[in-house]
Amino acid sequence: MHRAINARLSDDERAAFVGYRAGxxxxxxxxxxxxxxxxxPRIDYEWAAGNEQYKSHCDIVVSVGADAITTVGGNVGxxxxxxxxxxxxxxxxxxxxxxxxxxxxFVVLRSTLP
Length: 114
Prior knowledge:
Layout: H1 2-9, E1 17-21, E2 32-36, H2 45-50, E3 56-64, E4 69-73, E5 84-91, E6 94-97, E7 105-111
């Protein structure tokens, strides 16, 4: 995520992935969203640009509705290692996990590959 964010900030045309602020682009199926782990403090886009290591997680967007976004990811099911889904809702300008509101999306990753 750190490299993709900095690719966006530096307009690096060679980057395989570019990281946008969560409110900067319209999220679509196939996008990868990055968030803090639910047990870790929230992460800010600008902070992530300047720090290479932080507790984070990514999921793939599978559907976008008027009121919610659904993602699928590994290690999110009821047992460790399981695949599961999450529902994200907008609250106070942030995209937050509907079941664990301490978890917040801070970056949207998109591939630049053909």
